[in-house]
Design goal:
The complex is a heterodimer of chains A (309) and B (243). Chain A is α/β, with parallel strands linked by helices and 309 residues long. Chain A has helices spanning 17-20, 25-38, 61-77, 88-101, 104-116, 131-138, 140-147, 169-172, 188-195, 220-236, 247-255, 257-264, 275-282, 299-305, and strands at residues 13-15, 43-44, 82-85, 127-130, 156-160, 199-200, 241-244, 272-274. In chain A, the strands form 2 sheets. In chain A, strands 2-1-3-4 form a 4-stranded parallel sheet. A 4-stranded parallel sheet of chain A has the order 6-5-7-8, sandwiched between helices. Chain A starts with 12 loop residues before the first strand and ends with a helix. With 243 residues, chain B is mainly alpha-helical. Among the domains of chain B are: 44-138, no CATH class; 146-209, no CATH class. Chain B is 45% helix and 4% strand. In chain B, α1 (44-51) packs across α7 (125-138). Classes of the chains: A alpha/beta (309), B mainly alpha (243). Chains A and B meet through α3, α5 and α10 of A and α3, α6, α7, α8 and α9 of B. Bound molecules: iron/sulfur cluster (2 copies).
Chain lengths: 309, 243
């Protein structure tokens, strides 16, 4: 299957990105836990640099392509074709660099600059995967189900994918290759959470709306309104907890909790957790091990009340 | 008159009821747009946008409106005057005077990329919209927006060590905007982050090995691009915004 991570059996490179090593620490820790249980090792790109997210491109096209290209070149230098990232923003900018480097003139220009700075050249040949897609492709729902020892029975979860997990497909190739998710109505997270025994809420069209994270600091009205929608729509769909797949989304929503409470009321609030934290629970890890207390929305309190150790 | 939501059109004329040849056709028909002649069109904006690597796809737009229909700011947030299709249209026309009415709006695009995902013509709408916003800023029509200031703070922060210092960026940006968290709040958050291993700021900030060599090259690239985008701006106004 050409769209599956290739070649099978290869250990992909892992691009952590700044958030996983910073504010998204609980995501990083729970991610490694889940990948370990499923027997899906990743090789970390040790000397990575920031991918530039969606900000740098507004100032300089070439810098915004050079930053991710350096990381992808390091991965290729490790002999890896597949590069797995856990942050939607990283997936977006790595995939965008691939698209730009397919143009020979751009590629020559950027590589000349990378060489000048002592960085390896990049040939545009890496394949980018979100860790969610990677787990779904390699372990599948069946593999996840087999690893579950503490099913999330009766826990109603809203699967929140956010913006850049699959969008735009011209960069991410999601939906354009076999074995990939659906870019307009993604379902891989639904499947994995169901495999964990959770009761995944249907009718949650907010699953792919923006969290406003890109403007978390520069346009508070917008970022608070979007974060509130993510929670409010989840609540309307009957969810107890929202599962996220992006550190930016998680941090933005949680950072806005007080303002959401002030503007929209207490009843909008819900606990929010990384999907890997929920999977770790289902794999028998404790609330403490899954680092649920790290989250400002305190999903630890919710899960303890539901009998999780 | 450009095509735009009726509520945003200036100079609408309405009649209470409308009868044509004895038949009552009141309703939406009773709204008229006064005819206007515009002569002050200037194509330098679309020429400039097309000349940016981020804006090359602007000419492909055939004005279907798919981007606006799905735009999260327009549709979910309900900011009716945020209309990417219309911004592109005005740029294509060179109708800067009308575009200037949206000087405080264009920058609010949150880069959700739904427009890029859905555009049937392969327009990189999000980047084109940002380019239009940059043009407005550089040509002095719009003030520098908070989003532009954030992009700059972000880029400066990451170029320093190769890895973003999230807490440092937060502090620097907020201070630059004249906002400060109450000390107690800052202390509470800082301690929580520190004890959970999530605070890598100041002396604890991470750095990419070998960055010292690449950093000056990237800084030169950035400076060249920032200077390059000032080329092709109309000379009628002295450029103000921008670094
Ligand atoms: S979707 Fe594409 S072609 Fe249609 S109006 Fe928007 S930019 Fe133009
Ligand atoms: S990227 Fe910007 S213009 Fe495009 S849909 Fe999102 S907010 Fe609207």
């Amino acid at each position: 299957m050409s769209g599956a991570t290739s070649p099978p059996g290869e250990t992909p490179a892992y691009y952590p990105g700044c958030s996983m090593d910073g504010l998204g620490k609980a995501y990083e820790v729970s991610c490694q836990m889940v990948l370990g249980t499923l027997g899906l090792p990743l090789d970390r790109i040790e000397e990575y640099n920031c991918c530039g997210a969606t900000e740098v491109k507004n100032l300089s096209h070439d810098v915004s392509v050079a930053l991710p290209s350096r990381n992808l070149a390091l991965a290729r230098g490790m002999g890896r074709r597949t590069v797995v990232a856990a942050c939607n923003g990283c997936v977006y900018s790595l995939a965008r660099a691939n698209d730009a480097m397919a143009d020979p003139a751009t590629s020559a220009r950027i590589n000349a600059r990378l060489a000048e700075g002592g960085a390896p050249a990049y040939d545009g040949s890496a394949e980018i995967r979100h860790v969610l897609e990677y787990i779904r492709q390699r372990a599948g729902a069946a593999g996840v189900r087999a690893a579950v020892t503490a099913p999330l029975k009766g826990i109603r979860v809203a699967p929140y994918y956010g913006c850049l997990y699959s969008r735009p497909k011209r960069y991410t190739k999601v939906g354009l290759e076999p074995g990939r998710d659906n870019p307009e109505s993604p379902y891989f997270l639904d499947e994995l959470l169901e495999a964990c025994g959770a009761d995944v809420v249907r009718d949650y069209p907010a699953k792919t709306i923006c969290c406003g994270g890109g403007h978390a600091l520069s346009d508070l009205d917008v970022s608070v309104a979007f974060s509130a929608s993510v929670l409010n729509e989840a609540k309307r769909a009957g969810a107890d907890v929202v599962a996220t797949i992006c550190p930016l989304g998680q941090i933005n929503i949680e950072n806005n909790l007080d303002r959401i409470r002030q503007s929209f009321g207490e009843e909008v609030l819900l606990p929010v957790a990384y999907f890997t934290q929920l999977m770790a629970l289902a794999f028998g890890r404790s609330v403490r091990e899954a680092r649920l207390r790290y989250n400002f929305s305190r999903p630890d309190l919710f899960f303890r009340a539901r009998g999780f150790a | 008159m450009p095509i735009v939501e009726k509520s945003l059109v200036e100079g609408l004329q309405r009649t209470e009821t409308l009868e044509v040849e004895g038949i009552d056709v009141s309703g939406d028909w009773n709204t008229f747009i006064a005819s206007r002649v515009h002569t002050d069109l200037d194509l330098s904006i679309v020429d400039w946008v097309r000349g940016q690597p981020q804006g090359t796809t602007i000419d492909r737009c055939w004005q279907c409106g798919t981007c606006t229909a799905g735009c999260c700011l327009h549709t979910d947030y309900g900011l009716e005057e945020f209309n990417p299709r219309y911004f592109i249209y005005l740029a294509q026309l060179g109708f800067e005077k009308e575009l200037a009415r949206y000087a405080q709006t264009v920058w609010r695009c949150v880069s959700c990329n739904k427009c890029v995902e859905r555009c049937p013509k392969g327009v990189k709408v999000e980047e084109v919209v940002h380019s239009i916003g940059t043009y407005l800023e550089l040509s002095g029509t719009a003030p520098k927006s908070p989003a532009d200031r954030f992009d700059e703070a972000y880029t400066r922060n990451l170029l320093e060590r190769g890895i973003l210092d999230e807490a440092g960026l937060f502090q620097a940006f907020e201070a630059g905007e004249g906002r400060t968290l109450p000390t107690r709040e800052k202390l509470r958050m800082g301690l929580k982050l520190l004890f959970s291993g999530r605070l890598h700021t100041g002396p604890l900030a991470k750095r990419t090995r070998g960055w010292g060599r690449l950093r000056p090259v990237l800084e030169r690239m950035l400076a060249e691009d920032l200077a390059g985008r000032r080329r092709g701006l109309p000379s009628r106004r002295p450029p103000t915004g921008g670094p």
